[in-house]
Amino acid sequence: MDNSLYAAVDLGSNSFHMIIAHLSEGRFRIIDRIKERVRLAEGMDAQKRMSAEAMERGLSCLSLFAERLANIRPDHVRIAGTYTLRRASNARDFVLQASQLLHHPIEVISGQEEARLIYQGVAHTQHVEGQVLVVDIGGGSTEIIIGEGFSPLALTSRKMGCVSFTQQFFSDGKLTDRQFTAAMLEAQHQLDPILEQYRSLGWQSCLGSSGSVRTVYDVLQQEGMSDCGITLSALELLRQKMVESRKVSHLKLAGLPDERREVLAAGVAILLALFHSLKIERMDYSDGALREGLLYEFEERLQHHDIRERTADALARHYRLDVRQASRVEQTALALFDAVQAPWALEQAPYRDMLGWAARLHEIGMAINYSGIHRHSAYILQHTDLPGFSQEDQTLLAAMVRFQRKALRLDEMPPLPSHDETTVLRCIRLLRLAVALHHRRQDDLVPPLSASAEGDSISLTLPESWCEANRLLMQNLEKEQRYCREMGWRLELLS
Length: 495
What we know:
Oligomer: single chain
CATH architecture of the largest domain: Orthogonal Bundle
CATH class of the largest domain: Mainly Alpha
Number of strands: 13
CATH topology of the largest domain: Hypothetical protein af1432
Largest sheet: 5 strands, mixed
CATH superfamily of the largest domain: Hypothetical protein af1432
Helix content: 40-55%
């Protein structure tokens, strides 16, 4: 495998994208781009189920991607699913098949996380002075961000996309004023909740990214409707010309690719709503988008600027966690991980990091109530927007802290299709031990640990004098022994 190659894959609602980059001297150079139109959102029915045909189109595309990914290290690949995979009731079936086909896990990311990554892709691709408004119209959703430099200031994902709006307003292939007006009104309704915040923040320039904006930008230039990017007057001219065509099949526009013909009207309607509601004067096009954001996060992590570290620390500050106790539990949990990593064949990434963050945040539920803290902690981690974490990452974190104490109930374990259940349970066991050992919340109370593992057994060696002097903690460990026996596991306490 080539250790210098990295890949980012964007499983969008309209198209699947993949970029391959070569890392040299700490910087990426993109060497390949692959795009396939799959229209995943087009197959969604009233029950929010993707059709078999849409899923087959997606899997067929991914079989091609798999060939290109075969010689790239697994930890150099990131694959993100967006709106349709967030919304579809049968998304789990598709994700499982796709993961098996690609031999890589798929991160289904939240709308907020999608917006953040899009902004990073744009910010790393195009330098802009001052605050910038970034708009990305996808197949199922539109992400809108205000940021400055590499820092987003406001992030949102609205439920309006070129494929979903085509189905909702232009499915008959006609182009009428009434259809455009209906689509624009719905888009403006989607924008209403963010208007006050976005107008008050303001921006000095506006950039659009992805296929819909690129198509409109090219058509306006080649049709001679604008020579200075996308403007409201140019959009109105384009809308009028489209209405005069009456039908999608009759559209004759320079710069319009055949594969974008059916979804152009929806994209124009969404842009018109954005320009009217946000009072946008001009929008230029940026090549950067979600896939570039995924790629440049590799660069950040290589430079030890992992956004997930900042997220965990910010969450700890926000909920005013006892940082000394969190540090004690985290250090012990990671020491246990390192001790048993080889015999248990635990993968360093992502499990060591996830265990550390779970230990750091295991008491976050105390903000609600100490009683049931493990459940409260899990709820917060599952339902808070956590930049850098995919939805499954959050589910994994939540599961770890949910089972940090009391009896283990495997029937309450959430589905984690990208993770091995045995590995997850072993990480949970390590967290439980760390929490039990630090029950008294005192520095220097826990002696240097000696731990080993074989099969489903953990052996923990503690000094005999310490065991005699800390009977309460030993009772906690003996209780943990009983919980382990109930699960068919062994915890040996040696001295």
